[in-house]
Write a structure and sequence with these properties.
With about 40 residues, this protein is mainly alpha-helical. About 70% of the residues lie in helices and about 0% in strands. It is built from two helices and no strands. The longest helix is centred in the last third of the chain and has 23 residues. It is elongated and about 40 Å long. The chain starts with a helix and ends with a helix. The mean pLDDT is about 85.
Length: about 40
């Protein structure tokens, strides 16, 4: 997941045509990871 985000956020790279969808999906994934960490480890 982090490699995919790094690919889309490279400096100087043009915005992907579906940039909004990529950002939405990335934030959903990050939220799920955060929820798992909070629920399972705290």
């Amino acid at each position: 997941m982090l490699q995919l985000m790094k690919h889309f956020l490279q400096a100087g790279a043009p915005f992907h045509p579906n940039f909004k969808d990529v950002v939405k999906t990335s934030f959903k994934c990050l939220f799920c990871v955060d929820a798992h960490i909070d629920h399972s480890h705290f």
